[in-house]
Amino acid sequence: MPKSLTPRLAALRDEIHGYAKEFGLDFFDTVFEMVSYDEMNMVAAYGGFPTRYPHWRWGMEYEQLAKGYEYGLSKIYELVINNDPCYAYLMESNPEVDQKLVMAHVYGHCDFFKNNFSFRHTNRRMIDEMANHATRVRRWVDKIGVEKVEDFIDRTLSLENLIDQHSPHIRRNPDPRRAEDELKANERVEGFKVGREYMRGYINPAEFLDSQRKKVEDEKQRAKKFPERPQRDVLLFLLEEAPLEPWEADILAILREEAYYFAPQGQTKIMNEGWASYWHSTIMTRRALKDDELIDYADHHSGTMGTRPGAINPYKLGIELWRDIEERWNKGRFGKEWDECDDLRARRNWDKKLGAGREKIFEVRKHYNDITFIDTFLTAEFAMEQKLFVYGFNEKRNSWEILDREFRKVKNKLLQGLTNFGQPIIEVVDGNHENRGELLLAHKHDGQDLKGDYARETLKNLQSLWRRPVCLVTRYDNKGLMLRFDGTSHTEKKVEL
Amino acid sequence: MTLKIHQDHSRFKQIVRGKIKANLRKYVQKGEMIGKRGKDAISIPIPFIDIPRFKYGHKEQGGVGQGEGEVGQQLGPGAVEPGDGHQAGQGEGDHALEVDITLDELAQILGEELALPNIERRQNEKLVTQKIRYTGINTTGPESLRHFKRTFKQALRRQIAAGTYDPGRPVIIPTREDRRYRSYKLQDLPETNAVIIYMMDVSGSMGDEQKEIVRIESFWLDTWLRHQYKGLESRYIIHDAVAREVDRDTFFHTRESGGTMISSAYKLCRDIILADYPKSAWNIYPFHFSDGDNWSADDTRQCIEMLRADVLPNVNQFAYGQVESPYGSGQFIKDLREAVGDSSNVALSEIADKDAIYASIKDFLGRGR
């Protein structure tokens, strides 16, 4: 099991810690532990944590990591947990220069966890919480049986991405209009004011009052429609409204909490990896690197930064963007004057010697997430320098190919891929669809169709929690389509959008 | 391994095994795993072990990449993460996880499902084979084993020493002397020795479908015997009116026309056994596949004589699989049944179509010989 650092590594850690502080990084206490390579694979399979609830997919994860390492396809160098204190792991067999690089990288992550706004609401005692979750799930396993619990977890995991990424930052108020409507409705039922009692039958005929009452009742029924407005947090909706057993609700709550804990990491992947890479590179090349370590450092660093044509490497894109921002703010390449300058030579030699780059990147690391980061700082020059392109699938040639290098398109595609961390947005629209207790979901289509077989399987899992038929309205080939699963069979029908 | 994840890991393996077992008949009939075969492992698509989600069809999605290339240029294979975008309107979902499984594990599963007995080995002598282990660095070697970083360092060291290194233009050019290679040692591994001699009729009446059946069936026979004997040799004989020994690839892809003289194959088989595989040191398994059409009753008589005199006394088991074809008379299996059908080391099987492969494997391997 994890060991503490050797005196030699502890000394190196103190050294790197000193550099990190010197450069102004601000982090929680960080505990480094030494692990063997299969311990590293285990911790990585558990998403960085020493303990998770029992489930086969960690085993699958572990198998894939161990194989990847065996075949020399992948190697995990660094793992760090957003927690206070932060925990990070060093692999025993790594050479010293790698350990230094990893430590520097880790301090970058810890600074980011502590300071970036997306992590403000995360549980900083998550290690304990994960251990609690494990205990709770194990208790249910003892009581309910492993098969049933595992099966329920399988089905719930299938819905894991149906959370509201923004909900930790939003507070909703009750709707004041509804109360007003209700007051008005009461007046209508009582009928108009009657001066003389014998006129009542004429002014407020019984049929009229009845029809008014019916109308109000109907409205009330409709107002009871839930949720009142489309709800992105499908897991919460299920937790509150689905007929779950106590143990099921408990497990669902656990999985939902873990999903929210990990969400900010998905929303800041490019920034966070870029930031950590920026700092390992800065600390190593300016301070920590010894001459005879240079080649091993360069080998490792370039391995991390390598790109494949058909994918974005967040480490590479991130570090380059941070460096670009720093340079632009050092040289004053921003603002109205810069934007409006179309003299190429002037732009190339533009240097106002502002020196504000370092300060700027520290500010940016606080207030942005990947979407706003890319949206604000990815410039046309940058996209060109970095040789970014949009690719797509060519059915005719049955292959992937480069579609476009135009800046706007590249940026839009990149942003589209980051929206809702690259997952489709699905909302609960009605929990009493057709007044039959069916669950109606809607996919907010943004130009990309859902993967059909996965959608059907997911509906199945949803139905098993909701226990009544479930429907999903989406779009395929620009036509509205409602998928429905009633517990035994799938149906689909065209709908108007 | 005393790690906590051990439990989750074995649970995962148990699930995978269960899925493979449940689908084994399908795998056997389809033969889809043969193409993906690696040296010791194959990957098998396991239905529904990945967790379905609402997500975008990948082909719909596309994305942003980084690198050189003109608009319209294809991205090389492997550049994009695999994943199919099946549309809602299309039939059943077929998403699956590819799981690597060793051939050994696959054989175990096959054995459990078909209730195959372990083979009683006739010969227990050990044959020694060698295995390569990469242990060090050498100054010579094949280019495929070149150690890039060590070579680079060596070149840098030399250039600095020679004063030709310019930090302003840090270009390193390795020479022949700078090159470093991974070196290996050979390790001895003891193994039990067995040989399979595959024979197949490739005359005109054996069509592609028949050969496909032989190909699939021999994959499973191989897998099982390899599981039983570490260190298995395979020899391949094709025949029409004459027989010749070929390599594996030729064996499965040859098409001849003309008549059939099964005796030619048995004669070659006998010669191979007598020349290369002394009974005292080898476990020997001839498997012969044909559509049951032989040239003449006289040739069949010769076959049976050879079997009785030279083949059966030397081998663990002689197996004949008759693949049904529209042209074959199917007479040969009847003749064999009559002549040698009650010998304890003869296995005969009729394979009507791909669905019958499953049962046929059991015919061949069910006796544990």
In short:
The complex is a heterodimer of chains A (497) and B (369). Helix content of chain A is 55%, strand content 13%.
Could you describe the 3D structure shown?
The complex is a heterodimer of chains A (497) and B (369). Chain A is α+β, with helices and mostly antiparallel strands and 497 residues long. Chain A is built from 21 helices and ten strands. In chain A, the strands form three sheets. In chain A, strands 6-7-8-9-10 form a five-stranded mixed beta sheet, with helices on one face. Chain A has a three-stranded mixed beta sheet with strand order 1-3-2. The longest helix of chain A has 22 residues, at 246-267. Chain A is globular and about 105 Å long. In chain B, strand 10 (318-323), helix 9 and strand 11 form a beta-alpha-beta unit. Chain B is 36% helix and 22% strand. Chain B has helices at 5-30, 58-61, 103-114, 148-162, 208-228, 248-253, 262-276, 297-311, 331-340, 357-365; strands spanning 41-47, 63-66, 96-102, 126-138, 181-192, 194-201, 232-239, 243-246, 283-290, 318-323, 346-351. With 369 residues, chain B is an alpha/beta fold. A six-stranded mixed beta sheet of chain B has the order 8-7-6-9-10-11, with helices on both faces. At the A-B interface, helix 2, helix 3, helix 6, helix 13 and strand 4 of A face helix 1, helix 2, strand 2 and helix 4 of B.
Layout of secondary structure:
The complex is a heterodimer of chains A (497) and B (369).
Chain A: H1 7-22, E1 30-35, H2 37-45, H3 56-70, E2 79-81, E3 86-91, H4 96-115, H5 126-144, H6 146-157, H7 176-190, H8 200-203, H9 206-223, H10 234-241, H11 246-267, H12 269-288, H13 294-305, H14 314-331, H15 335-340, H16 344-348, H17 357-367, H18 370-377, H19 380-385, E4 388-394, E5 399-404, H20 407-418, E6 425-433, E7 438-444, H21 452-466, E8 470-476, E9 479-485, E10 490-494
Parallel strand pairs in A: 1-3, 7-8
Antiparallel strand pairs in A: 2-3, 4-5, 6-7, 8-9, 9-10
Chain B: H1 5-30, E1 41-47, H2 58-61, E2 63-66, E3 96-102, H3 103-114, E4 126-138, H4 148-162, E5 181-192, E6 194-201, H5 208-228, E7 232-239, E8 243-246, H6 248-253, H7 262-276, E9 283-290, H8 297-311, E10 318-323, H9 331-340, E11 346-351, H10 357-365
Parallel strand pairs in B: 6-7, 6-9, 9-10, 10-11
Antiparallel strand pairs in B: 1-3, 4-5, 7-8
